[in-house]
């Protein structure tokens, strides 16, 4: 069904159609009988899919990556498609509009997207309040946090602490995002010294609470091997839960789309990222002797893509662009594929 209507959806601006579809999903889920229908159509309930990672019990290892539901508007609706966890954000302390539009571009010849959204979100107070009202049951929710565009890097820690404190009671795990290419200077925080400062400070805050929250670090696929070695050292020294590999890439290598599209600035996601994200996962897993959890994301468009990342060392996986190109049925296909691969 989705592949039939996809050509029509793809005729419209990707950001506008995203809002249209998610808003329509919310309305549909208010209609009697729709939620049970979605559950029967998309959910795969099997004990063999359960995973325990960083002290959290996931009903299955497939999640929705950050960026799709930035403001925690549609968690209950999206959960009906069978995800084991959903990551909201990136959230910043203050609301911000993000970069100028247009800021998202489809590359259909490559099954890819380019976005330069710029952490557009309603601010941590709005998101925290919305999450506090949510009946999430067994669904795991992650909070992806970042700094405001106007905050200089030397003051970035303050922004991460504000988000961490405000979301602490309403999310199950945190993701420190220092790898988006769409906030000027943000990727400089991936360097060892500033990153150690941020993560150690959050961990100190974390351990003061009766219940601690697992902290993951989201990294770029464009890091060199020496930088990945630094990441392994940082995870070991700060004792955070693990890494999300990877964010979008600034590379445009091997694209088939017209030059006017792939010359757009921003982060590239989708199939062109499949190989590199898996390489990063494998490198981190092997070099660290699997001493920390890795959430694999980047170019997962099929069950085989998800299995490849798990075989490379990912404990959990996430989708985003694949969800847009392949449709909601991808969730069930991946989960069924994981069961068959056991």
UniProtKB/TrEMBL annotation:
Q: Which GO terms describe its cellular component?
A: cytoplasm; plasma membrane
> Known Pfam families for this protein?
DHO_dh (PF01180)
Q: Which GO terms describe its biological process?
A: 'de novo' pyrimidine nucleobase biosynthetic process; 'de novo' UMP biosynthetic process
Which pathway does the protein contribute to? Pyrimidine metabolism; UMP biosynthesis via de novo pathway; orotate from (S)-dihydroorotate (quinone route): step 1/1
* Keyword presence, Oxidoreductase: yes
| Subunit details | Monomer.
Q: What is this protein called?
A: Dihydroorotate dehydrogenase (quinone)
Q: Which organism is it from?
A: Daejeonella lutea
């Amino acid at each position: 069904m989705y592949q039939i209507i996809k050509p029509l959806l793809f005729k419209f601006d990707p950001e506008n159609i995203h809002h249209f579809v998610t808003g329509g999903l919310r309305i549909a889920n208010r209609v009697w009988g729709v939620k049970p229908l979605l559950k029967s159509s998309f959910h795969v309930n099997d004990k063999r899919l359960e995973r325990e990672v960083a002290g959290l019990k996931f009903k299955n290892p497939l999640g929705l990556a950050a960026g799709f539901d930035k403001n925690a508007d549609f968690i209950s609706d999206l959960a009906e498609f069978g995800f084991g966890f959903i990551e909201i954000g990136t959230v910043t302390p203050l609301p911000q509009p993000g970069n100028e539009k247009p800021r998202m571009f489809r590359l259909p010849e490559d099954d890819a997207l380019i976005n330069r959204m710029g952490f557009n979100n309603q601010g941590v107070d709005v998101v925290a309040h919305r999450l506090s009202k949510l009946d999430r049951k067994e669904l795991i929710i992650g909070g992806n946090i970042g700094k405001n565009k106007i905050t200089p890097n030397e003051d970035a820690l303050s922004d991460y602490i504000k988000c961490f404190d405000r979301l602490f009671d309403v999310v199950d795990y945190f993701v420190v995002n220092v790898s988006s290419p769409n906030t000027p200077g943000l990727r400089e925080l991936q360097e060892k010294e500033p990153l150690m400062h941020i993560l150690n400070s959050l961990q100190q805050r974390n351990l003061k609470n009766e219940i601690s929250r697992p902290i993951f670090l989201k990294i770029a696929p464009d890091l060199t091997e020496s930088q990945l070695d630094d990441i392994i050292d940082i995870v070991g020294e700060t004792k955070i839960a693990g890494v999300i590999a990877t964010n979008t890439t600034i590379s445009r290598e091997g694209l088939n789309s017209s030059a006017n599209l792939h010359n757009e600035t921003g982060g590239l996601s989708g199939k062109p990222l499949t190989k590199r994200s898996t390489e990063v996962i494998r490198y981190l897993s092997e070099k660290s002797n699997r001493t920390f959890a890795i959430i694999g994301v980047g170019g997962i468009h099929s069950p085989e893509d998800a299995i490849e990342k798990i075989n490379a060392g990912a404990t959990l996986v996430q989708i985003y662009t694949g969800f847009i190109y392949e449709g909601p049925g991808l969730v069930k296909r991946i989960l069924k594929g994981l069961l068959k691969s056991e």
